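Researcher: Structure for this, please.
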Amino acid sequence: MTKRQAVMLVCLLWLRYAGSASGQEMAKRTEASENFVVGTITAAPGTRASGFLEVPKGTDAGTRIPVTVIRGIKPGPVLALIAGTHGYEYSPILAMQRFPAKVDPRELAGTIIVVHVANMPSFLGRTIYYSPVDGKNLNRVYPGKDDGTVSERIAASITREVIDRADYLVDLHCGDGNEALRPYSYWEAVGTPELNEKTRQMVLAFGLDHIVIETERPADLAKTVYTSNTAIRRGKPAITTETGLLGRVDTNGTDLAEAGVFNLLRHFKMLSGEPQRVEHPIWIDRSEVLRSPVTGIFHARVQPDQAVAKGTLLGVLTDFFGNAVQEVRAPFAGVVLYIVATPPVSQGEPLGMVGHLKPE
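Model: Predicted structure, token format:
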């Protein structure tokens, strides 16, 4: 065999090896050995790095988004965790404050992107639902616009730097400053059958026992509206979770959010161990958010997690002189997922949400 023939044989054997399972694994290891970059934040393998995604000034003031990237030393998926889409929802925000320090990057397979507070104007302004800068709900403007108002620019930045970089996503919510809420998750079955099954397994692995089935979300990639729907419409499994209530520093809600994230890390084999999956999920096959027909004062008559019959009195709306304006009643039998438990309401805003339990 000539020297040239020997070289050609070695090359042929290498090409066959690279196409084999072992060769693919080597490619994954090479990928895992690279730095992971989100904006200007760079995490080397086996490290965590924190910094800000800068949202430039536009038609209104700019802002910044605090992010931590945890880069494992082993190959694995990219999981994005987004807290603080609504700035008065403290439980997941606090969960994501303490979570990164509990993950050893040297034991991690893959990468975690943690968005600590997506909506800094709302967080610092202590506002429910809407940004104090542009009056918009961040979870209604995705995928955002680089030339839009600040909420739209935040959404565009998160879409580009977080959602598009991730393989899986969790949008972590809780009862806003006005909402008394029992924990639950959303299973958004709006993708392909394969994608829907992946999101179903995610929501079961997260561990909350009440699961709202959502089958209607915008399909237009230019108007995906919601954080999780933006990921799903890009072919990435995503879920939305709700743990905590009334803008409280709620230990139980914070613990549930953190435990759910660790369950998912085990579900994806990013950490060792088995997730504590829901053994007996309660599926909500129909849900309705009741909205106020008037601006006034709301007096709740039920508690979150309370079972109600069709027509059960949920609360009473009064004017600013104490005169009853309208009774609010359950549209069907089910469970109260949340109820507005603070007095002020504006026309069109939520008063509560009732879920219908799917028959077993």
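Researcher: Any notable elements?
Model: The radius of gyration is 23 Å. Residues 3-30 have pLDDT under 50 and may be disordered.
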